[in-house]
Amino acid sequence: EEMIDKRNYFISLLESKFGCKLNGHSDYRLPNNVNVIFPQNITGESMLYMLDMSNIKVSTGSACNSKVIEPSHVLKAIGLTDEEAMRSIRFTLSNDITYKEIDYVIEEVDKIIKIIES
Q1: Catalytic residues
Q2: Pairing between β-strand 88-92 and β-strand 59-60 as defined by DSSP bridges
Q3: CA–CA dist 41, 50 (Å, integer)
Q4: Which of 42, 78, 79 is nearest to 60 (CA)?
Q5: What would the pLDDT profile of 34-69 be if each residue is shown by its tens digit?
Q6: Which SS3 state, helix, strand or coil, does residue 104 take?
Q7: Distance between start and end Cα atoms, the chain
Q8: What is the pTM of this model?
Q9: Which of 41, 24, 47 is nearest to 108 (CA)?
Q10: Selection from 29, 27, 24, 32 nearest residue 102 by Cα
Q11: What whole-number distance in Å separates Cα of residue 39 and Cα of residue 99?
Q12: How far is CA 35 from CA 23, 51, 73, 83, in A?
């Protein structure tokens, strides 16, 4: 229950602050899984590399497609376009993640979006 609360907190921040759209069902998902589409002009690939520089590890696409650069067949199967799939990123939350750490990730995402949009 606590992990689901943290996951939902993270999702709500991504949606409200950045206009991200959740991939998949909001309730029927793993408690530590967050897969979102970022707004226009922000690719999952650019977000992945820039978050990595902040020591935040993420993946583009789905877990089934984490080593391939082309759009995830899983994300396409749930109805995403190639472009939407390429703007998607997957966060997997650790069991011991804190709200403070989630807030740090949000701060880093905010910095990256500002850099990309400038």
Answers
A1: 64
A2: antiparallel
A3: 15
A4: 42
A5: 999 998 889 888 999 999 999 999 988 555 544 556
A6: helix
A7: 39
A8: 0.88
A9: 47
A10: 32
A11: 24
A12: 5, 15, 14, 15
Neighbouring-strand partners of residue 92: 33
pLDDT band at 72 (very low <50, low <70, confident <90, very high): confident
Cα separation, 14 vs 109, in Å, equals 9
Reading the block at residue 14, the tokens are: 């991504």
Structure tokens at 65: 């497609």
- Cα distances (Å, whole numbers) of residue 19 to 37, 59, 66: 9, 19, 24
Q: What gap in Å lies between CA 91 and CA 89, rounded to an integer?
A: 7
Contacts of 110 (CB under 8 A, 6+ apart): 17, 18
Distance CA 96, CA 76 (A): 31
Q: Which of 6, 32, 42, 8 is nearest to 90 (CA)?
A: 32
How big is the chain, counted in residues? 118
Record the tokens describing residue 28, joined without a space: 């029927």
